[in-house]
Amino acid sequence: MQPRAVETYAWILETAAQILEAQGIGAFNTNLVAERAGVSIGSLYQYFPGKDALLIALMRRKKERLGEDALAALAAPDGHAALAHLVAAAVRHQLGRPELARLLDVEETRPEAQQEVENASNYRGLLRTILDRSDLPPQPNPEIATDDLASLVRMLVDAAGVRGESNAEQLERRVLGALLGYLGASTRP
Questions:
Q1: pTM, whole model, 2 decimals?
Q2: What is the phi-psi region of residue 188: left when phi exceeds 0, alpha when psi lies from -120 to 50, beta otherwise?
Q3: Residue 182: which of 158, 150, 154, 157 has the closest Cα?
Q4: What average pLDDT does the segment 96-101 reach?
Q5: Predicted local confidence at residue 108, as pLDDT
């Protein structure tokens, strides 16, 4: 894509996110997005063939940003710190734009959306790599442990978002405690 096309794509996507946050899924449509973005409906359709394409692009963007943030966990000095970074990344992305995150989480449950965005983040892969750190207890089945831990993070962080929690530090502490408890690892003070 040309630089101008990249800017237009990003602007349309951000406009769509703002509409979702402000008005919800019921008011969300391509005509409103085009109007607010200041582009013709034809131009919008060049980038996004419909409402579902816009939603899927927003879901991918959310997961990609989470994956980029979570990647820094690999530089952590030990498994505890790496898990703490992964948890903090998930919390940042849920609480940073909570209404958008909540709406996209609901939309991600649709089977066609799940297939489209499944691999947009490498969160599970990072988690699996971190489980091999020497300061974390070895797991009898690392693949199952990875799936369980990823599910725990998602469930706890999403539930906090639905409740409207805003204290990231407290949420991070609770989620990390749950992960370490699952692993049979001691918590740090």
A1: 0.86
A2: beta
A3: 150
A4: 91
A5: 84
